[in-house]
Amino acid sequence: MTTLAEALATRETALAQRGFRVRPARLSDVPRMAEMINNFASQGEMLPRSASELYENIRDFLIIADENDEVAATASLHILWDDLAEIKSVAVSEALHGQGIGAYLVEKCVEEAARMELPTVFVLTHKPGFYEKLQFERADVLAFPRKVWSECIRCPKFSNCNEIAMSRPVAREFTADLPDDDDLLDPIPTRA
Ligand SMILES: CC(C)(COP(=O)(O)OP(=O)(O)OC[C@H]1O[C@@H](n2cnc3c(N)ncnc32)[C@H](O)[C@@H]1OP(=O)(O)O)[C@@H](O)C(=O)NCCC(=O)NCCS
Prior knowledge:
Layout: H1 4-17, E1 21-24, H2 30-42, H3 51-56, E2 61-65, E3 71-81, E4 84-92, H4 101-115, E5 120-125, H5 128-132, E6 137-138, H6 145-150, E7 164-169, H7 181-184
Helix pairs in contact: 1-4
Coenzyme A binds near residues 40, 45, 92 and 97.
């Protein structure tokens, strides 16, 4: 059986052959991230993000960078509590839609959730069909009171929110695929 790590590695190789790579977001990516997200938001496809929100949460974000190291897609994993995290701001440059990039980034967020030992991830979305392909199921947003009472309550659309809540369990067996935390760290150079 193909493990999550193997499936992601295969996808990563295919993307690399086309000059794309996944990496953590950097502060210098924020203008392009804001432009992409807010362009889709102006068409009602997702919620807008201010530059300050992006800077404050930059460590939540993964990027697909193109061969010029420019942002081609974004996604973020935002942890709310020890048992819950939200996948937010999934956006793929329009010219690259339908090539598996969005699905890959969501799976990378789920992989990170597994590494963090989170049992569940959720989304609020206008694209339920996309997330259904990724094993998310419809849920009641009230099942996530920490989201509702910390963030939704400050949203101008709180009283007439039309986003669909969906969640996905983070299978425990995924964690068996993952590298040890120590392997994620670069070795510290030793002095001669
Ligand atoms: C939604 C979005 C992220 C999808 O990214 P993508 O890279 O085009 O999607 P993928 O190619 O990875 O698609 C994966 C699967 O989902 C399906 N899919 C993609 N978008 C879909 C949609 N809007 N509705 C239903 N299914 C969809 C694809 O057909 C594919 O199915 P397959 O595995 O059977 O071939 C992208 O269209 C986008 O950036 N949209 C604008 C911003 C947005 O709406 N973001 C969602 C925020 S909630």
